[in-house]
Amino acid sequence: MSEQKNHDTSVLRLRDITMQFGGVVAINNLSLEVNQGEIVALIGPNGAGKTTAFNCITGVYEPTNGEVYFHGKPIAVNHPQGKMAKQYAGINGDAYRGKKPVVYSPDKITKMGIARTFQNIRLFKSQTAFENVLIGTHLRRTSNLFTAAFRLNAKEEKAMREKAAALLEIVGLSGEADELAVSLPYGKQRRLEIARALATEPSLLLLDEPAAGMNPQETDELGEFIVDIKNRFNLTVFMIEHHMNLVMDISDRIYVLDFGKQIAEGTPEEIQKNPDVIAAYLGVEEE
Amino acid sequence: MKKKGNLRLILSLAVVALLYGAAVLVEHTSGSKSMVVTVLQKGAVYALIAVSMNLLNGFTGLFSLGQAGFMLIGAYSYAILTIPMAKRAAVYQYYDGGIVQFTIGLLPALLVAGVMAALFAALIGMPVLRLKGDYLAIATLGFAEIIRAFVQWDAIGPLTNGSNLLKTYPTLKTAMPGNTLLFTFLVVGVCIGLILLLINSTYGRAFKAIRDDEIAAEAMGINLFRHKQMAFVISSFFAGIGGALLAMYQGSLQANGFKSAMTYEILLIVVIGGMGSVSGSILASFLFIACSEWWLRFLDAETMIGNFQVPLLAPGFRMVAFSIVIMVVVLFFRKGIMGDRELWELGSRRQAKGGGRNK
For A94, what's the count of Cα atoms within 13 Å in the CB-facing half-sphere? Predict the structure, then answer.
C-alpha cells in the first residue's frame, strides 16, 4: 500500500491492464492515471481498445490481468486464470498472480462514484428527458419498496424531482423536459446522457465520444460545457474522443492507444509533436 | 401542473366508484347467475392476473411465462387453508382427511396465497432470472409445468389431495352471496391500486429503465438482479392472489386446470391491452372474457338456418377465431389497444411512444 501515499491526488489508476478475448488482445498492458480535477483524454484510431478500457473500469468487462484503483481502492484486480493462463498473450502475466481477484458489477462501480456515457447513445427510449434524469437519482435513494410504494418517501421523491429538474436546467434542456428522450436532436441527447450520469452523483465522469456526430459549433459548445460541469460539480473527467480540436482544447493530459498498446502520454502540445502519434493516428485521420 | 394531477386523480377515483356502483347494481337487478355477472367476475380476476403479468412482461421487460404456476400455488394455498374442518374427511377421502387440520379466515387465506406464490417466485427467481429473453420464457414455462406436476404427486396428497378435486372451500357464491361483484372488484381494485402505486414510484421507474436498456440501467447504478427479483416476486404475489380469486370463482379446483394454455390466454390479454399499460390490461381482460364466455359462444354451436347448416361452426371453432384475432393483433396492432399509455393519460401532452419494443 506504500504506492498509495505517492498518489494522493490520483482518482483513477490503471496498472498493467490487459484485456484478452480468446486469442485477441484488445488492450495490452495499459497503465494510466487520472488525477483529481483533471480532464484526461484517451485517443487512438478506431479499434484501438479505448471503449474496452472504459468497460474494464466500469465493471462491464473483467480485465484479464492488472489492477484498477479508484481513489486508492482496488475496484478490479485479476490475473490470467484457468484456460486463460495458458492462452495469455500479454505481458506481466505473473505480476498479479498472488493477488486476490476483485470484481464489482457496473452498478456497484457507479455507486462508488464513477458515472459514464455511451458511445452509441443509450437513453431510456420510452421515457421523457426528465424521467431519464430522474432514473439516475434512483441510486442514491433511502426509500425501500414499501416506503416508495406507499409514498412515505414524499420528501425524497420531491428532492429527486427537483434535482432532476435542476440538472436539466444546467445542461440547457429544461424546455425539452417532457419530450421523449429519443425525439431530441443528437447533440441534445448527448447532453441528456451527461445529465443522467450526473444524477448518480459521480466524482469521476467517463465520457465515451461525447462529440460523436456533432458539427464544429456544437463541438465547441460541448467543450465549454464539459469544463463548466467539471468545475461546478468538482468532477474529474476521463474521456474518449476523436475530435482533435476538442481534445486539444480542454484536456490537461492525453493518452494515446494504438492496437491496444499505449504509444504516448503527455500534454496536448507534447502529443501534437510526438512522431509516433502522428504516424499512427493524426497523419491518417481527418485532422 | 400539480393541481391538474390532483383533479385527474379525483376524476379517476370517481369513475372507479361509479363503475363499482354500476357493478353492484347489475348484480342486484339481474341476479348472480346472469351472464353479465359471470363475465364481470371472471373478467375482474383475469384483470388482476393480467396486470400482474404486465408488471413483469410489460414494465420490467422480463418475458416470463410462469404465471399459471404461481396462480396454481395461490389457488391451492387458499383452498387448502379454507376447506371447513367438517368437510375435510370427504374432500381428502383418499388421504385420511389430509394433514392440514386447521382453517383460517378468507382474507388471511388470500394473503397467504399471495405470500406462498411470492416465496416460490423468490426461490425460482434465483436461477431463472440470470437468463434473458427466450431462455427466461422457456425456463419459467418449465417451472410452471413442474409445479403443476408436483402438486399432483401422490406423495404429497395429504397436503394437496393429489390429482383429485379440491372443493367445498368458500367460493364467491357461498362466501359473498349477492355481493360477489363488490367483493371481487374490491380485492382486485386494491391489488391493482398497489401495483399502480409501485409502478409510479422510483422503483417502477427503475423497472422501466431495465426494460428500455439493461446496460444503461446498470450503468445508472441499478442492481439488475435485485430489481428483477423484486418485479418477479411482486408479480407472483399478485398472481397468487389472482389464482385464489379464480379458485373462488370456479368453485372447485384441480391442478390440471392451470396448464400453460392459461398463461397464453393471459399473455394474449396483455398483448391485446398493450404491453406496459395497466388500463389496457384491464380493458382487454373484460373484453377477452366477454368474448370467450359469452359473445363468441355461438361459434362453438352447430347452427342451422332453415335446412342449411352454417359451415365451420362446430365445437372448437371459437379457438380458431381467437387464433385469427391473435394474428391480426400481432401483425397490425402490435401496440395493442392502449400501447403503453394509460386511460387517464389520454389527452395529455405526451405523444404516443414507439412500439415494437420486444424485438
Answer: 0
Question: What CATH code is carried by the domain that includes residue B246?
Answer: 1.10.3470
A148 to B205: CB separation less than 8 angstroms, yes or no: no
A16 three-class SS: strand
Helix (H) or strand (E) holding A132: helix A129-136
How many domains does chain B contain in total? 1
**Sheet strand arrangement including A65-70:** A24-35, A10-21, A65-70, A73-78
**Contact of B198 with B22, CB cutoff 8 Å:** no
Q: What is the pTM of this model?
A: 0.90
Q: Hey, are the CB atoms on B209 and A60 less than 8 Å from each other?
A: no
Residue B265 is assigned to a structural domain of this protein = yes
* pLDDT for the residue numbered B357: 35
C-beta atoms of A135 and B205 within 8 A: yes
The complex's ipTM works out to: 0.90
Measured CA to CA, the distance from residue A17 to residue A57 in angstroms comes to 10
Residues of B in contact with A106 (CB under 8 A): 215, 218-219
Tens digits of residue pLDDT in B15-37: 889 989 888 888 888 876 788 89
Angle in degrees, 0-180, between the axes of helices B35-54 and B260-273, rounded to the nearest 10: 80
Using CB atoms, pick whichever of B209, B219, B350 lies closest to residue A178.
Answer: B350
Q: Among A73, A82, A110, which residue's Cα sits nearest to residue A20?
A: A82
Chain B CB contacts of A198 under 8 Å are none
How distant, in Å, are the alpha carbons of A30, A78, B305 from that of A14?
7, 12, 84
Of A139, A148, A180, the CB nearest to B201: A148
Residue B212 belongs to domain spanning: 2-345
In chain B, what residues touch A131 (CB-CB under 8 Å)?
205
CA A75 remoteness from chain centre: 14
Instruction: Name the residue with cell 498493467.
Output: A16
Measure CB to CB from residue B202 to each of A107, A141, A180 and give the nearest one: A141
Q: Does A212 touch chain B (CB under 8 A)?
A: no
Is-contact B50 B281, C-beta < 8 A? yes
Nearest Cα residue in chain B from A206? B219
CB atoms within 10 A of CB A9: 12
In the predicted model, residues of chain B with pLDDT beneath 70 are 1-4, 32, 347-359
Residue B132 in any domain: the answer is: yes
**Between helices B35-54 and B2-30, what is the axis angle to 10°?**
150
In a domain, B235, yes or no: yes
In a domain, B279, yes or no: yes
The parts of chain A modelled with pLDDT lower than 50 are 1-7, 285-287
Between strands A39-43 and A253-258, the pairing is parallel
